[in-house]
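Q: Here's a chain of 460 amino acids. Please give me its 3D structure as tokens.
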Amino acid sequence: MRGSLLFKMLLGCSFGIVFFFPSIVLSSSGESAETDRVIVEITDKDGNKEIESIPMEEVQPKSSFTISASSKDQMNVLQPDYIRTIGMVKTAEYTKSWGATRVGTDRMKSQFTTTGEDVIVAVIDTGVDYTHSFLKERMIAGYDFVDNDSDPMDEHFHGTHIAGIIAESTTASVKIMPIRALNESGNGYDSNIAKGIRYAVDNGASIVNMSFQGNEYSEHLAEAIDYALSHNVLMVVASGNKSDDTANYYPASEEKVLVVSATDQSDNIASFSNIGGSIDVSAPGVGILSSIPGEKYAALHGTSMAAPCVSGVAAMFLVDDPTRTIEEIEKLLKTYVDDKGAVNWDPLFGEGILNVSNFEKHSFISSAFSSSNYINLPEHTNVPLDKTWTILFDQVFSDDSTVAVKLYTENYEIPIQLKPDLKNKKIIVSPTKNYQMNTEYLLDIQIQNGNRYLMRFNTK
């Protein structure tokens, strides 16, 4: 970062919150694809291969693509280890959050009165200030690939701001995984970003937010993105802040990811936002108020701020139905929009500005009771959190009989364990983990070529 961060206090804020605003333009220190490192493949004497990033000066002669790393290893130079950057990020003195209201996440969140399965959003960025009071209850373990340790503390401010936008637009079921792949200047090597992507996938993330840009296409980074997509992990990418065509940037030019442009409070494309053929949707990115390190808040401009708004909504679609694929989530994101610009898709807004204000959550319980031909069993209340159900039948089943038993909350299906004893006319049903407190459940019993039984119960 050029210069130092100076903050001035904004007095008279309501609710006892003090906002701080940087007094200068905040930007990264490197905007080009120039790099001092290369990505190499090292093969040992046993034929085992490993990918590493090494300084360019260690590659001699530079004109050769295959050289000896040692007397026992062979090293193949794959590509430059390109640098990605957060790009230019500007500040503005906004004291109210408007982006979440514009997108409709306030109403969307209000429909989820009970917690569901956790959905993890990985933020690959400058790290996150996980001690910030606005974020600390939403954080899970992450990793720092810059310093190669398990402490992804934000030494910049960008990643903490991104995490705050996601937290604001989601319920407590959405957890944030901080992955530090960009340094204190907002720059990061492809090798560390690719490691971050694979770490996120391997540690349970369903969505990865990448609010950075770079000029050169990277096969190494593309392979990591493909790894995530092949594991049903949605990749959300900022379009970039250069008032340019996304075709000139990566990963913003990647057709396989979900690329987000930025809009202002008048629903115009932000003057700095990259646009182009890869844009999928747009979201607020001007004067977005969010957390920054040290118990502070700031309003920033950038497509970096638009992308996590989309990541948050995508996470809520998974809270609503954890079985959704990335294709289904992307379709929903492109359906819940306000069409702007040219009719349907256009290179500025994509399919339109994200707006989930008319979203209605999916209810497994309501869907079941809207079906026909079922027997409604008596309801039960104040059920213990470790309750086991024994289902008794009035006849003995043959060996080829099929009984399907499922357990739902409004939002998702509960994993269960079944102990069938059909010859003795019973099935024992228990959840794999305890029920949630004060929650409504539905036991759904379907007999092939027979009756369907539905039973509601509520926990204490």
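Q: Can you summarize the key feature?
A: Helices lie at 99-103, 105-110, 158-168, 190-202, 219-230, 303-320, 326-335, 364-369.
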